[in-house]
Design a protein that fits this description.
Oligomer: single chain
Shape: globular
Strand order of the largest sheet: 1-9-8-7-6-5-4
Order of helices and strands: EEEHHEHEHEHHEHEHEHHHH
Low-confidence stretches: none
Strand content: 5-15%
Number of strands: 9
Largest sheet: 7 strands, parallel
Number of helices: 12
Structural class: alpha/beta
Distance between the termini: 39 Å
Amino acid sequence: MFSGSIPALATPFRGGAFDEAAFRRLVDWQIANGSAALVPCGTTGEASTLSNAEHHRVIEVCIEQAAGRVPVIAGCGSNDTRNAALHMTFAKKAGAAAGLCVAPYYNRPSQRGLIAHFSYLAENCELPIVLYNVPARTVTDILDDTVVELVRKYPDKIIAIKDASGDLSRVADHRMGIGREFCQLSGNDELWLPHAAAGGRGCISVTANVAPKLCAEFHAAIAANELKKARELNDRLFPLHYAMFSDASPAPVKYALSRVHDWIEPEVRLPLVECSDEAKRAVDEALVSAGVLEG
């Protein structure tokens, strides 16, 4: 169902509130520059500091502005299963193609708990699920056997995984356990190329926020098996991948967006703060290196 360069969209703020006008412009810019799908309210979208009303409004605006041009994978994760189901139900009614559901954070559920959590969502919500495994943030790791069990149990509901474990062997493990057609998306920009070589379909990307055209061209080169071009583009993008995490994310990507567009503020919500001067220098240098900004 999904492939290509898929930005995990930042949520613009202005004066502490959701900047809807800027977000609409961001959605249009992303689509015009080749993004294959959009993910609002993920980690990069600061979903953990959005109220439920804000969370749902961001999803609604994204779907409304995309207007069917690309699919929207709505961030629906929560460490409260019932709240995740609430997000899933809303996103389905709003017109999302799928819900991105992260492993519950802070609670540290067992693998049995993860199976119960995702089983509840699969059985009680109509929206297809994209699993999101990012143990560096959640502490909990959705192990390969758990992924395989869930997909085999709900093949029509659990349709993809965004894997940010950093373990490339999992691509083959999932292919062996589930099948080659299961949609695997990288959750790490810097591993996009080797993840694709192992069988991945694309990347839910932070970098694509600020370099959507370059990321779309990169994926197109991979898909066409133009490895020389893909490596060249990867070299251009690599400093930007690291710069996006030169301070607590998404502060660097929001600063980068403010450098690319004068209609986006670098504002983040507490407990995050704007990125350091050192991080800003890293972002500026990487934007120039990638050719996104002139030196």
